[in-house]
Amino acid sequence: MLRAQFEKDLRQLHEEFHTMGEAVSLSVYKAVRAFIKQDNEIAQSVIQGDSKINEFESDLEKKGLEMIALQQPVTSDLRLIITVMKAVNDLERIGDHAVSISKAAIRVNNTKPIFEIQEKISDMADDVLKLLDDALHAYTEGNSEEAVLIADRDEKINDYFKEIYEMCIRVMKEDSDLVEIGTDYLRVARFLERIGDYVTNICEWIIYLKTGKIVELHSSNDE
């Protein structure tokens, strides 16, 4: 009876993590849309919705701690609980970056966009969202091999940032009136680049879940 309840709790933990991941992915999508479209209403909805993501994190951490304390799970079950407790931190930080992008969207409202850079940021965001969604799918499937391949794709995100950085510096040097919006383009590109790093962290936890090994897939990852 106790084991059956524990397995039910494990499934619920697993499902709630994925639900949180979907909510975070939607926040990033909406934040980028708000920035590109200069839509304050969408931006505000992301900012206001961040409290729900924070609740997901605290609830999942609490449930994980309770399961460890009360059930003393076996190794494989313990890895699942630890993976969720660690990876929710990365999801929460991704949510924080979605909020930061939304705040940038509000700042640039009614500002004439630099279409060349805006298009590049849109492309970068598409790839970042695909990275996140693929990582969530790899987690659901428990696919550690796919997690490695997903993390490798983060290099393309880093390349996007370098390209956008160079474009922003060039236009700001050419026209001082573009410094303000150019700075916000840089910030948003940096937020997207950091989201890619957090996705890599999640991929590392997927590998831990399946193998028990703690690996570092991206030497540049940091807090």
From TrEMBL:
All residue ranges annotated as the PhoU domain in the record: 19-104, 121-206
GO cellular component, one term: cytoplasm
GO annotation (BP), single: phosphate ion transport
InterPro entries on file: PhoU, PhoU-like_sf, PhoU_dom
Any Pfam family: PhoU
This protein's UniProt keywords: Cytoplasm, Phosphate transport, Transport
Location(s), subcellular: Cytoplasm
Annotated PANTHER family: PHOSPHATE-SPECIFIC TRANSPORT SYSTEM ACCESSORY PROTEIN PHOU
Function noted in UniProt: Plays a role in the regulation of phosphate uptake.
Family as reported in the entry's similarity comment: Belongs to the PhoU family.
Oligomeric form and interacting partners: Homodimer.
Protein name: Phosphate-specific transport system accessory protein PhoU
Lineage: Bacteria, Bacillati, Bacillota, Bacilli, Lactobacillales
